[in-house]
Amino acid sequence: MFGNRGxxxxxxVRTLWVxxxxxxxxxxxxxxxxxxxxxxxxxxxxxxxxxxxxxxxxQIGKASLTPxxxxxxxxxxxxxxxxxxxxxxxxxxxxxxxxxILAERTGxxxxxxxxxxxxxxxxxxxxxxxxxxxxx
Length: 136
Fold this sequence. Notes:
This protein is α+β, with helices and mostly antiparallel strands and about 140 residues long. The chain has five helices and seven strands.
């Protein structure tokens, strides 16, 4: 640790956890909130193939990103893990920049941005645990 601040990195096979500790310990980001997954190219390709058959469940328009939109996307990621978002023509923002901002705010990963379509993925630990139990 460096004074009251420090950065700790935990590397667990394919998962990189980054925990940032600030002056106030109560504001510490937990691994669940701050997890960053190093996605392999095979995993990314699989997610892209799954996303091809999906319909967009959100549309970002003239109002761009609002806090309500971000919260709705966060909830959808928790429920579905993989979502597709359309950026409408009347939105002045760059889709790649919107994808980066959304991934940062929701704790997800950008799978791909093609034209005005954004695909985001966020692993739901509860669903992963259920999948493991079902496979046993």
